[in-house]
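pinging the channel bc i need a second pair of eyes. not urgent but kinda urgent?? the chain im working w is below, pasted from the shared doc
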Amino acid sequence: MKYHNSQGFNNFRFPTEFWLICTIVGLGFVYGFNIGFYSFRMVDLILVLTIMYFIFRNKSKDNSKLILFYSLLVIYLFVLTVLDFENYSHLLYAKTQFGMLMTYLTPIIYIHVRETYIDISIAKKLLIIAFIISILSQFGILTWGESEASGVADLGLFLNLGTSMRKYGEIIKYQERTITIWRALIIGASFALIFVKTKPMWKIIGISSLFLQIAGGGGGRGGLVFVVVTPIIFFFLLNDDKKIKIIKKISVAFAISAFFASIYILAPLGQKYVTKDNILVTHQDRSEEILVLFTGGWDEASRIGGFNARTMGYEEYINRIFSDWFIFLFGVGLYKGVGFVYTANQGAHNMILDIWSLVGIIGLFFFIVFQYYILKDLINILRIKNISNNSKVMLYSFAIALIYFYTPLLFQAVTSDRSFMIVYYLIAGTLRPLSKSITEKKLEV
């Protein structure tokens, strides 16, 4: 089915079934099944459907360069697969190779989705789903993946419901990375309601929602980076009043950032209502590990436990990548799953180093090209002016959700996680069609 917009372009319908699959997998009723040696996950249907759409429909001229780069990536991955053929004698290597190959083919989701049609009504439906899933998580029914980023306060305990709500979650066992997309969207909406000019009631809702998301204990250090950086970025982008002096802008931006950072670090709901498995590892503990980097330098951070796994891993990966010209150019191969398994954390936990180690600087080049287009779509959304506040809330909800995804990309080993990369490219692909539909509507008015 095609839609015709005001400028005469053809837009294929937005793939609603993608989000249906994300909802099913996020709720955890179905995980997947084995096909021979391959473990087929429900979320893999998104990748399979995308490939089918890509093959059986017309291609947009706007995406011609992206399609060319993707075609070159496919050829490059095929060559690497052939070169690694001698390692397939072990079934585990063959299974890992195929799984990683599927993971590195996921950018096609971004290419397809950015050509589709999505408007505010669709965006609202997705945010409603995000709200429902977030509520289920806050009551302790859905817990996987929710606390790993920032820790979530358990409303079931807060309302003295004990484990009564959790008993309904016993049949929900297979939550996967798809739940990340709903968490990202609800956090994006919370920030958007705060930043955009909205009624006081919506401000209170945004602040309350964000408070529940970041005030729980446990969580990771990357969450702190997110809540510090995001307010600064958006304050400068939204506040374009030239009459306000730059010093005042900086002061206000950092004050807002410090406020959210304080909530995150202190985690007032983290002592009693935390959902993190290890309640002894609080946001404050994690934050202090990062501060050592600034007070004691890189060597001190590498010596002290916690953050040292990152610093040691980064150093080791860089040294090994540059130690061999073949690894520098082509990597160690996808059949290993991670570049150097016997380093700290069994991986660099950084998107650039993890990709570079597996497929070399040539493979990294393709990833950077896709990042260029994704960040370009993000910047274009943030530059849109003179639209309604309702439209701004929608745009910024999705834009901030994408920014949220960069926390695990920078600090977690997610580039080897097919489920994460699928939903990452899915959310990235929504930015262009959403901004396009809103700007076209503005022109029609």
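so The radius of gyration is 22 Å. and The longest strand covers residues 10-13. — does that match what u expected or am i reading it wrong
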